[in-house]
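Incident review: delayed structure delivery

Summary: a single-chain prediction request sat in the queue longer than the usual turnaround. Root cause was a stuck worker, restarted by the on-call engineer. No data loss occurred. The affected request and its eventual output are reproduced below so the record is complete for anyone auditing the incident later.

Affected input:
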Amino acid sequence: MPDLSPKRVAVLYTSVEESLEGVEGQMRIEMDLAVSAREVTEALSSFGHTSRCFTFGKDPAALASSLREFEADAVFNLSECPMNSAQKEPHGAAFLELLNFPYTGNGPLPLSVCNDKALTKHILSSVGIPTPSFRLYAEVPRGRSRLRFPVIVKPSKEDGSAGISEESVVDDEAGLKIRVAYVIEKYGQEALAEEYIGGREFNVGVLGNGSVEEPYRPLPPAELVYRNPKWRVCSFESKWDADHPAYNEIAPECPAKIPDTLRDRLARLTLASANAFGLCGYARVDFRMNGNGKAFALEVNPNPDISSNAGLARAARTAGFSYKGLIQEILRLGLSRGAR
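Output delivered after worker restart:
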């Protein structure tokens, strides 16, 4: 077990000022990583740690010098988009490994793999975890997709539901072609089209390093309750835009009101996913059920949002952790891994 006497902890986050240009009000607050960084810093300070926020800016050499001057014992890694790119999230973890700092959360490999939605689904399938059938398109398809409609189309390498809206769900081949073209042009990447699973939606958080000393522990499952059938997906707007009508009509319920058999099945699938991707620290797996009650894994999310009002913190509270206790536990798990 790591020594949890007071440490010097650098809280490293990426500024999203450029990506939030033109975004105002509550939506800006919801998406601003600086808010999470302050919450984490305050939680760490309450346990006696000396903590300070650092921004992963455009000069990694200057950041390395600042972290060394601070004499950090560990880095609490919240760097989601170094150089203003979600695809560079693994670079933040790799940077800390090169500097030989213990850090929280997942390493470069699971961050890289899980950012690639198609690769994630290939791996899920390879270990027997059900996931919806899909196609990956680098260009607008000419022939038939051979998918069962409706189909949901999304960017293949984005985070936080970017590129997902109600218009993402299409009902025929013509709609599929239109949406694939939109995603490729708008996001400059391949479009993932997968069969839309229309039943109940769940997510399950997990803590642990997958080791004998720090085994994986699933948190109580949460359900996203769609109060109005008008809404079919957890879109970007429903997550981040408090002025959007879906924001208050798609509400989390934790713990989910489900039978023990389903709770156990979701937990088993979550643990199998954590093992398949070599997750560590904290993560979340998203599921949907079809009309026959079969659960499908949609995505695996290493280092999900840990702000105090986000899903992981909500599930942790249900499991008996205060928000401050969750942050302390994530730090403990990072220290347990040591420098990687």
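Verification: The radius of gyration is 20 Å.
Action items: add queue-age alerting; document worker restart procedure.
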